[in-house]
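Journal club side-thread
Mid-discussion, someone asked how the predicted structure for our own chain would compare to the paper's figures. Pasting it here so we can look after the session.
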Amino acid sequence: MKILVSADMEGATGVTWPADVLPGTPQWERCRSLFTSDVNAASLGFYDGGADEVLINEAHWTMRNLLLEQLDDRVQMLTGKHKSLSMVEGIQHGDVDAVAFVGYHTGAGTEGVLAHTYLANSITGVWLNGIRASEGLLNAHVAAEYGVPVVLVTGDDLTCVDARGYAPDARTVAVKDYVSRYAAVCRTPARTAADIRAAAKEAVALAGRYTPVDGGPFTVELEFDAEHLAAAATVVPGVAASGERRVDYTSETMYEGIRTFKAVTTIVSSAVEEQYG
């Protein structure tokens, strides 16, 4: 049995503000250990439950945040950028029995600690087939296309609520409770590690590939905080203006959909000016 862990950082234990997740800051350096603790706890729990293999895919920013030397010796870690499926890279090879979303967060334009979708700011909302979408929802649809269940989600309490919409059977662990976008009531790492490990052990019972879901076509709509960013997004083939500061596109598969999403966010991020956005 092989479990893929998609590891993001905004939803990690103790993380509450931008410097905690911005590579190179003293706060980020400190929070790397907290992030690694959450991921390691999930891995240990999966092994406790009978998993044979755990592959961790780094999914935050530079995708070079976790401390390999603090992970259990049995795991393998995929680190670095420029991956075909970004946050869920590795799910496409037909050997993954379940996926866990560790350190996840809520989507752009919603309540939640460090809420966003791919870009920290700039994107003010994302909708998938008319439903407001977090990164968890987008990635869950990719997983479904490969017949892989989402069995564990960790993050703040609102991330756990969000997960009920796209993975109702998954085990969830709230490592902190939302107060504002930059404030939360946090549990200690010893407590969250124990909670995550226990939930991951239970989650193994949910693992097992199923018949891939052909849920397409998928229409993705994005709203930006500035008109020029919407215009920049239309450089990507198939992406068209759909309203004020909005664009959309339609893909037959979520594999295509998430790759187009990645292209759009890459183009848009290059169009952001430092002071005016």
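Post-session note: DSSP finds six helices and twelve strands in the chain.
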